[in-house]
Amino acid sequence: MFSYYLKLAWLSSKRTWGMSLLMVLAIALGIGAAMTTITVNYLMSANPIPQKSDQLFYVQLDAWDPNDPYFDNGDPPDQLTYRDATALWQAKKAPRQSIATGVAGVIEPADKEALPFMAQGRANSADFFPMFDVPFLYGSGWDEQADLNKEFVVVITAEINERLFGGKDSTGQTLRLAGKDFRIAGVIKRWQPQPRFYDISTGAFQDSEEFFVPFSLMAEQILGQSGNNNCWKPTESGFKAYLDSECIWTQLWVELPTKADVEQYQSYIDAYADEQHKFGRFARTRNNKLSDVMTWLEQREVVSEDASMMMAMALMFLTVCLLNTVGLLLAKFLGKASEIGVRQALGASRRDLFLQHLVESGCIGLAGGLLGLVLAWLGLEAVKSMYGDWMAELAVLDLNMVLLAILLAIGSSILAGLYPTWRACQVQPSQQLKAQ
Amino acid sequence: MLSMKNISKSFATDNVVTHALRDINLDLAEGDFVSVTGPSGSGKTTFLNIAGLLESSTSGEYWLDGEDISKLDDKGRSRMRNQKIGFIFQSFNLIPDLNLFDNVDVPLRYRGFNAAERKKRIEYHLDQVGLASRMKHLPSQLSGGQQQRVAIARALATSPRFLLADEPTGNLDSSMAQSVMSLLEDINANGTTILMVTHDNGLAARAKRQIFIKDGQAQELRQGQHNIHNLAAV
C-alpha cells in the first residue's frame, strides 16, 4: 500500500500544486535556517578527539594576581607560566605530558628562486604527537632525548612538504627555519581538529600549525612566541627573567588513563601549588584544575552563547514554518473531505486514511527537506563569506547533517501533518457523500 | 442476509432531539431488489447510511450476513463495507484525480488483491459497463451516464453481495436513467441484493419490493414473492 499512498500523494500534490509548493517552501525555509545554525553548532561542539577525550587533561594553576582573579568567576588562568609548566613537565608525574606554545618563523625554501615565507608553528614536547593521535604521512615525531638535547628537529605538514619537497618523503632532509637548519623527523597528514582543542588561547577554530619543533628550543630564543601572553606584574629585563616571570603563555596537557591517575595528578599539582605558596607565590593555592577535553571546551565556552541563541531562534523559526504548514495541510486535507468520504464508503478504515495522509505529509517534508538542504548550503556559504576562513571548516554539511536535515524535515512535517490528518479521518462519510 | 430490528436514529442538538428513524424492522433475503421511496427529509438516506455502515443507529439490532454490526469497530465496519457492500451515489462520487482504471481500483486496493487480480477485475467490470476502451480517461471527460456506469463498475469490482444505491438515476436524463436501471436489474438477476433509494415511482415500481418511509417510519407497500415483514405502522 505504501507505493499506492506515494502515488496518491503525488496526484494530490499535483492537483493542489500551489498549496503544496507553499508548504514545501515553508518547510525548506525552516529547515534551511535550522540546519545552517545546527551545522555550525554541531561542528563547534563536536568532540575533536572522541577516542580519548576523557583521558586528556588540561592543567590549570593559579599563580595570578592575588588581588585580582584572572577570571571573574574565580577560575584559574587559561595558560601556565613557563616555569610552572616546565616544572610539571620535567616532574613526569603523568604517563604522558605535552608542554606547548605557539610560535612563528620564517621558512627558507632550498630553491633559491622561491621566496621565504612566514609560517605558524608549535613548540611542543615529544608526547604531543602520540597524546593527540597526530596522523603521520612519513616518519614520526621526535623522542624525549631530542627534547632534552634541544635538537633541531621539525615535523612539517603535508602542505609544507608538498610546497617544499613536491610531496615526496622528506624525512631526514633539512628545513631552513628561523635561520637554522632543522632535520625533518616527520610529515603529518592533514590534521585539523575542530575545535582546535589543544590550544584555544587564540581562538578555538584556528588552523592547525604548519610545523612543530621541540619546546625546549624556546629557552634558546630560536623562534618567536606567537600566541596570547598575559602578565600581571612587571618583569625584569632579559629573556631569562621573562622565562622566570609570572607571565602566562604555555599550555600543559597530561594523559591520565585511569581515575586513580587523575586523583594522583590532582594531589601532585595541589602539593606543587602548596610548595610554591611557601615561596610567596600562588595566593590561591587550591585553585588548581584538571579538565578533560570536553569539560575544558565547555568551560571556555567554545560554543558561544550567541551561537546557541542563534540556534534557538532558528529552531523557533522552524516551528513557525511548521505551524504554517499545519494550517496549509489542514486546509488541503479538509478540502479532500468528499474523497475521504468516498474512500471510507469503499472500505478504507481510519487507519488506512491516516497512513495515506501521513505519507502525503512525509512526501511534502522530504521535498521541503531536500530544498532546505540547498538553502542550508547557501546559508553556510553566506556564513563563510561573512566570517572568512576561520569558519570554512565549520560551515560544511557532512553526511550526518544531511541525514539529520532530511529526518528533521520528514519528522517535523509528519508531526505537522498529525493534526490535519486526524481531522481528515474524523470526516463523516455519510455527510460528505450526500453533500456532493 | 440483512436483518434490522427496531432500528432508530435520533440527532440531539442542544435541547432538541430529532428522530430521523423510528423502530425500523426489515429483513432482506439474498437476491432481493428493494426500492425505498418517501418524501424529502423522511429519513431515506439516513436509513441507507445505516444499512451501508456509514452511520450507526441510536438503538436497535442490525445483522448483516450473520454478523452483529453493533459489535464491529471501525476496522471491522470498513472490512464489511469493502467486502460485502457496494455503493452507488446520486452524484457518482468518482475521485476526480484518478482515471477510470484507478477509480475502480480503489476498493480493490483496500481489499488487498494483488496487481494481476486487480487488473483482471477492473478490466472485466469496466467492460461490463461498456467503458473498457476509456480506462485512462478522467471522470471529467465522461458524460453523467458514463460516470454512473463507472461508479457501478467500481461498486461491483469487489463482488459485493449487497448493493446500495442512493438515487442512482437522480442526476441523469430519462434515457440514461433507464439504461442504468436496466443495468441494476441485470446485476440483481445475477444474484446481487439491491437496496435502492429513489424519488422516481416508476423506477421504484420495477423493484421486487417497495418500502415507503415517512417521518422516519417505514411501510412495505406491496407484497412481493418474499416474506412479508411487519414494519412499524405509519
Would you write up a description of this structure?
The complex is a heterodimer of chains A (436) and B (234). Chain A is of the alpha+beta class. Chain A folds into two domains: 2-45 and 304-435, no CATH class; 56-299, no CATH class. Chain A is 49% helix and 16% strand. Chain A contains 14 helices and twelve strands. In chain A, strands 3-4-9-6-8-7 form a six-stranded mixed beta barrel. In chain A, strand 7 and strand 8 (180-188) form a beta hairpin. In chain A, helix 1 (2-15) crosses helix 2. Chain B has a single domain (29-56, 71-220), classed as P-loop containing nucleotide triphosphate hydrolases (Rossmann fold). In chain B, 34% of the residues lie in helices and 26% in strands. Chain B is built from seven helices and ten strands. A six-stranded mixed β-sheet of chain B has the order 6-7-8-3-9-10, with helices on both faces. In chain B, helix 3 crosses helix 4 (115-128) and helix 5 (144-156) runs parallel beside helix 6. Chain B is globular, with a radius of gyration of 18 Å. Chain B starts with a strand and ends in a 14-residue tail after the last strand. Residues 224-234 of chain B have low confidence and may be disordered. The interface between A and B is medium-sized, with 26 and 30 residues.
Secondary structure elements and pairings:
The complex is a heterodimer of chains A (436) and B (234).
Chain A: H1 2-15, H2 17-44, E1 56-60, E2 80-81, H3 82-91, E3 96-108, E4 117-124, H4 128-131, E5 136-139, H5 144-148, E6 153-157, H6 158-165, E7 174-177, E8 180-188, E9 211-214, E10 224-225, H7 239-243, E11 248-255, H8 259-278, E12 289-292, H9 293-299, H10 305-335, H11 337-345, H12 350-387, H13 399-425, H14 429-435
Parallel strand pairs in A: 4-9, 6-8
Antiparallel strand pairs in A: 1-11, 1-12, 2-11, 3-4, 3-7, 3-10, 3-11, 5-8, 6-9, 7-8
Helix pairs in contact in A: 1-2, 1-12, 2-10, 2-12, 2-13, 10-13, 11-14, 12-13
Chain B: E1 2-13, E2 16-28, E3 33-37, H1 44-51, E4 59-64, E5 67-68, H2 74-84, E6 85-88, H3 100-111, H4 115-128, H5 144-156, E7 162-166, H6 174-189, E8 193-197, H7 201-205, E9 209-214, E10 217-220
Parallel strand pairs in B: 3-8, 3-9, 6-7, 7-8
Antiparallel strand pairs in B: 1-2, 1-4, 4-5, 9-10
Helix pairs in contact in B: 3-4, 3-5, 4-5, 5-6
